[in-house]
Design a protein that fits this description.
The protein is α+β, with helices and mostly antiparallel strands. The protein has one domain. Helix content is about 25%, strand content about 15%. It contains seven helices and twelve strands. The strands form three sheets. It has a six-stranded antiparallel beta sheet with strand order 1-6-3-4-5-7. It has a three-stranded mixed beta sheet with strand order 8-2-12. A three-stranded antiparallel beta sheet has the order 10-9-11. Strand 4 and strand 5 form a beta hairpin. Helix 1 runs antiparallel to helix 3. The chain is globular and about 50 Å long. The protein starts with 5 loop residues before the first strand and ends with a strand.
Length: about 270
């Protein structure tokens, strides 16, 4: 990647219990309006490890553990991840990953090249913050589905207001974010209170979890809810609270072993 000696590592095989689904690009287009009444919630699930979302997250974790950069190789535009600056370079631009974000089992054909002396160009046209990339890849992988082993009674609270000036705003995202910033709600309670299609709540949850914005309780010192019209950019090499949240993802990205089906009917509590 940068001309220095590199070594290779293969990703662990992803799980195979989520079932194949037709690939679709991001951003999430939104679900049809729910019918009146209180219908049961149909929960469709996906395994992030079987998509580019899980591939990039796993490569990032391995690179951070090594203190190196990593180049992700496969049948898609190349991706370089720089853990220290929490940035990535997508060769061809981040939009070039759209046809691949919803394609299953890409990690099986992936290889990683780790650089011992990582270098990066802040002015590279393909440079993107890592949270922005993971958010987009999660939208493309989820497509209205929940990650495996996520029950409807999962408590959700927002630890930081999403930077909607640079993140894709999915249908209902503002309402869900405002609710979870004020109080802890389960997924099923969120659907009922906001009267949103379940798929719209699920896709926002999937993206927010991918960048570690959702926790089971509110923070002891809530972050101020910044206006989405007033972005606060920071230099890449300056530490920030956002990076602290992202680094905590390492402990949340470990694969689980319990099986789950793709479609599970469930009722409101």
């Amino acid at each position: 990647m940068d001309g220095h000696r590199a070594d290779r590592a293969e990703l662990p095989a992803p799980r195979h219990d989520a079932g194949p689904l037709r690939p679709a690009p991001y951003p999430w287009a939104g679900a049809a309006a729910s019918s009146r009444g209180e219908p049961s919630i149909t929960v469709r699930r996906y395994d992030p490890a079987r998509y580019l979302q899980g591939l990039v997250a796993s490569a990032w974790r391995q690179a951070a553990d090594r203190g190196q950069a990593v180049y992700i190789q496969g049948d898609w535009p190349g991706i370089a991840v720089y853990p220290r600056s929490l940035t990535a370079v997508v060769y061809g631009g981040e939009d070039s990953l759209r046809p691949y974000a919803g394609t299953e089992d890409l990690p099986l054909r992936a290889g990683l090249v780790f650089s011992r002396e990582p270098e990066y160009d802040l002015n590279h046209p393909g440079m993107v913050p890592l949270d922005v990339l993971l958010w987009k890849l999660a939208l493309g992988a989820s497509r209205g589905r929940l990650p495996l082993d996520t029950p409807l009674d999962t408590p959700c609270a927002l630890w930081e207001w999403p930077n909607f000036t640079r993140l894709i705003v999915t249908p209902g995202a503002m309402s869900v974010a405002a609710l979870w910033a004020r109080q802890v709600c389960t997924l099923s309670e969120t659907i009922s209170l906001l009267r949103l299609p379940a798929e719209d709540v699920f896709v926002f949850y999937s993206a927010a979890v991918a960048v570690d914005l959702v926790h089971p309780e509110l923070p002891s010192r809530p972050a101020p809810l910044r206006s989405s019209a007033q972005p606060q950019p920071q230099p890449v090499d300056v530490p920030s609270p956002r990076r602290g949240l992202l680094r905590k993802l390492f402990d949340r990205l470990r694969p689980t072993d319990s099986p789950s089906s793709d479609t599970t009917p469930s009722s409101h509590p």
